[in-house]
């Protein structure tokens, strides 16, 4: 069995103190949002639809299952016992809700949202003939 030194224990305690710990978490049914409060005073709210782990379940979680969130790992993570699903708190705090590919797809979808103002502007541009054509650059030494 490996022996752990006092220096290794001290270094682990220092790393643990530097990482923000989760104080509380709750699921807000009305907005389907996960609200997480950290020990240093930061509070974040993330729509569960943005969190990849929930979309990868065999079936969509019920509101009751989402409401059973627990703080675990001495404040480092969140756990949903009925879903057997855990999330790392520091990742949520950094805005990491899934893999890079997942985050790219989420961002791509957000840019595709059309508001009434965007639709009206598009129609107005269409009436004017659309976007102006780009003219190729003329050579400097013609």
From TrEMBL:
Pfam families for this protein:
DUF2442
Residue segments, region Disordered: 114-142
Instruction: Tell me which Gene3D superfamilies the record gives.
Output: Uncharacterised protein PF10387, DUF2442 (3.30.2020.40)
InterPro entries referenced in this protein's UniProt entry, alphabetically = DUF2442 (IPR018841)
Superkingdom of origin organism:
Bacteria
Q: What's the protein here called?
A: DUF2442 domain-containing protein
Give the organism, scientific name: Trinickia dabaoshanensis
In the record, what lineage is assigned to the organism producing the protein?
Bacteria, Pseudomonadati, Pseudomonadota, Betaproteobacteria, Burkholderiales
């Amino acid at each position: 069995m490996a022996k752990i030194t006092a220096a290794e224990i001290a270094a682990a305690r220092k790393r643990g103190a530097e990482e923000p710990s989760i104080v509380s978490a709750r699921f807000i049914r009305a907005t389907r949002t996960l609200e997480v409060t950290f020990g240093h005073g930061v509070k974040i709210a993330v729509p569960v639809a943005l969190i990849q782990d929930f979309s990868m379940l065999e079936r969509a979680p019920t509101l009751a299952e989402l409401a059973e969130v627990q703080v675990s790992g001495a404040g480092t993570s969140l756990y949903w016992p009925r879903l057997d699903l855990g999330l790392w708190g520091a990742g949520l705090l950094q805005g990491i809700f899934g893999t890079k590919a997942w985050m790219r797809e989420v961002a791509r979808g957000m840019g595709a949202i059309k508001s009434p103002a965007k639709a009206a502007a598009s129609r107005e541009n269409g009436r004017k003939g659309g976007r102006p054509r780009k003219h190729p650059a003329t050579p400097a030494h013609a």
